[in-house]
Specification:
Blueprint lengths: L5 H14 L11 E5 L5 E5 L5 E4 L3 H7 L9 E2 L12 H4 L9 E4 L3 E2 L1 H6 L6 E5 L7 H8 L3 E4 L8 H15 L2 H22 L7 E5 L11 E2 L4 H5 L3 E2 L12 E2 L2 H7 L3 E5 L11 H7 L1 H4 L2 H4 L3 E4 L9 H15 L9 H13 L4 H7 L25
Parallel strand pairs: 3-7, 4-5, 7-8, 9-11, 9-13, 13-14
Antiparallel strand pairs: 1-2, 5-6, 10-12
Helix pairs in contact: 6-7, 7-13, 13-14
Amino acid sequence: MRRFWILPLLALLLCACSENGTEPTQPATETVTITDALGRSVTIPKVVERVICSGPGCLRYLTYLRAQDRAIAVDSIEKRKTRIDARPYAMTNPQFKKLPLFGEFRGRDNPELIAALDPQPQVIFKTYSTSGHDPEELQAKTGIPVVCLDYGDLGLRRDAVYESLTLMGMVLGVEQRAEEVIGFLKTTIADLAARTEDVSERPTCFVGGIAFKGPHGFRSTEPGYPPFLFLNAANVAAPESGKPPRHADATKEQIVTWNPEYIFVDLSTIRAGAESNSLYELANDEAYKHLTANREGRVFGVLPYNWYTSNHGNTLADAYFIGKTLYPERFEDIDPVSKADSIYTFLVGGPVFDELSKAFGNLAFTKLDASSIRIGDDAEVLEQ
């Protein structure tokens, strides 16, 4: 019976507050304390509906978690007009361009712009925490909790990817979607490995033109290039022992000595300039012209691996194309373009392969030769 007195009593209390000219006290926002990727204890609202994503790849992860509608502002990379882009998450979310600006790309946040946002974000997610404002400084200046993420990669730092997706999912209350994305990544990588783990003959291969804080020419490579790792491929640039560096510039002499049987060109190189991109070099440099793969027509274009840090969707899509190229009998059931679009649809909500390839002269997943040369006239440095 006692419960029937609660509502009338509450009504009397509210009336009394009103008659005394005071407003009823509002309940305080519930909070929880989490530990971020830097080991910092950060107190955040229990329910987070408004965020901003600072740093390379941060908004990509928000999109993977299907929480992109919670972003209330963006950094400058999202608002730039550029003829060439390789970010599937941005292609499926054109609304990002219309959101307010909170700072420059690569984590160079503007506390004044953040303070002026209305409504205010409840949490700032930040990748690459050493770029731009220190997280503690940014938190102190804005009064908004900053949660740092370790972006990781799908090569040797997959655990960091999984942990960051888990942490972001927990903060946003979308733990199930985070588990689904992690499961998708693990299953896809396992499929690639299973198809190739018992291959007896592995042709040697090399990937050139990898972007790293900007576009580069043919010597720019990745000793631990994830698609090669997934496929157990014989990457000539990989060290014989020890952990491979994230990026390397091979010498021309090394490449000639390696003389790989297959060459893959990261198409981000197109933006390196008229006589600096990999396609121009392969067609005109006498040393490269005599590489076996070049002479025998085994040079292929792949989608950019790095574009505002590593693109996991592109990485997986490239791996299926490379797998079909190196080991066609193991990938008879795979159409690389269809597979790419199924990956993009799961991760970012739609098929974007045609749009991506068109931006790079329709050279993705094709055999390249001298007639394939395309010169990029848009040389903004946007990659991480």
